Amino acid sequence: MLDIPLQALAAQAFTGLVLGGIFVLMAIGLSLIFGLMTVVNFAHGSFYMLGAYVAFSLMGVTKSFWAALVLAPLVVGALGFLVERFLIRRLYGRSPDDPLLLTFGLSLAMVEGAKLVWGKIGLTVDPPRQLAAAVNLGFMNFPVYRLFVIAVTAAVLVSLWLFLEKTSVGLVIRAGSRDALMVRALGVDLNRIWLLVFGIGIAMAGLAGVLAGPMRGVYAEMGVEIIIDSFVIVVVGGMGSLAGAIVAGLVMGEIVSLTTFFAPRLAELIIFIVMAIVLLVRPSGLFGEAGLAE
Amino acid sequence: MHRRQFLTTATAGASILVFPAVLRAQSKDPVRIGFPLPLTGTFAAIAADMQRGAQLAMEELNAKGGVMGRKVDVMFRDDELKPAVGAQRTKELIENQKVDFVVGGLAAHVQMAINEQTKAAGRLYISVSQSDEISAKPDTSPLTFHEALNPTITSRTIATFGTKELGKKWWIVYADYAFGKQNTAVFAAIAPKLGATLLGSTPYPLGKPEFSAHLPKIQAAKPDVIYAVTPGADNVPFLKQAISFGLKKEAKIIVPLHFLDYVKEGGAEVWQDIFGATHFCHELAETLPQAKRYVEAYTKKFNRPPDAYSGYGYSGIMEVARGVELAKSTDSNTVANALRKNREYDHYKGKQWWRACDNKSFQDLWILKVRSPQQVKGEWGFFDVVGKVAANEELDRTCAEKGLA
Fold first, then answer.
1. Which ipTM did the prediction report?
2. What does the CA dihedral A97, A102, A105, A107 come to, rounded to 10 degrees?
């Protein structure tokens, strides 16, 4: 009797890993931008949506999922550069509410803009032929494409870690997030660093969108839905903490998946319950440093 | 004298000229019909089709000189699939645009919100999408008409057909709002009588098409049939995810309603062999002369064949027009009485009628099966019509069960 539930639970846990992967890609970008620039980027979900749409269009032009997978995050990241350089940069040194309002407005404009460009009706994207099948994992049939999403997420995380820990630019980024004034005093041009970080964070949101497209379809409101979940994960992980974003993203993916198994109606609510509990016990999040978010 | 005579004549002449003009202007005011519908959101494609049907009805009516010599003006508004927005748009249509009637609403919960406004303002409302409550106490009213099928009729039909043809052990995946919940409840109620077992059911939030966390559980239960109440734009992502988890090979899939636009979007490879019901599809033109005329007019105007819900939009506008002509009035109560007294109509696919107690329209429905990619005819010929269920008041709840006896 017990082996069937155990198999089902294993299947459920594995499915949760993919949900968590998308969460992590979103939350890392948000956390990176917040940690370094104290910008609460409300437009993050819209860049996720844009990544999915741009990939759809690029697939139409290049006829290749792989080209779209590489190019779409770069296109979206480049757009992130422009947003930082010409919009957000003007608001540094002002109240943190100002960039929040700016990005909030931007997200609304982007959703409506996407409807103008790609239409109000959602689009479907197919995974590439090579990844379309399902593979038998012993306890379940699992779509190869979802395994691929897990692999891409892991590869991106490792690259990001190497970049932050092993390169001199990474060193400056880490220093800048601790004490921007001191780094400036040492003669580093932090404007360029912020531009870079914003671009990287946005490109990761774009990548998450590209990856989510073939699983969930592409529609203008897709970013509005995920941004709330992503903020919850960043708060639970600790604002600005990359390790926190990864751990909280994966844990939330698992919690949502397992809750869906036992009490599907609660699946929407559970992440907020978890957030409330975490904040009661650790007000600055699992990995957060007290005072950073103030 | 000369001057006074001139003035009198001139004044008289002017009043003759002006006064009839005023009268004429009043009677030539268009008959205004408000039409809220979700042009954005999960049901956008269905709403666009419904809008085209209503537009065609308006143009056909106006080409014949309108109703009672007055033009028909249908005013469409986007309700964004949100009850609050639906209520607001309807209020604006009634108060600012002075609409005489309201047709529209696509989704049970938004229909309710629209209906509250039309009831309060005393306007006739023809609701044109599925809902069980709209034609039952306490929501219905003498001015509330329901042109569409409802979950009771749909799920009783699906359960009867599916249990006989596809298998006895069922699992339902349903969008967690009125339409999904009602279909699930109807199926659960009728299943024992048909010898079917409902192994389980899974709610998910409408418009959030991520099903992966639900699929392993369904797979483990090994159902014969999966009833996918995953409406609108959720349909294709559901099927793709189910296929990617290997579920389509292990179980038969049936949907409450088939839509041409979503089948075309997903393609025959995804949809092949999936059954579903409908009140209309363009393939009916091959057997029904009324459908042939409608499909030809629609295709000529929009350069593509109609999907199912265009028929509701078309018929809804045509029924308002018929009611106004019968009543010789645009007063909502008079028109409603006229429709109840002359309850039979046939605008695009055969005879329909209003049931007097609940203003519910009864109509034929059909069972469709999606063709294989090789069998698809041309760009749009996806459906095989495999069965017909004739209009029958017994498929719905009785008036007593609806609290209307």
1. 0.80
2. -100
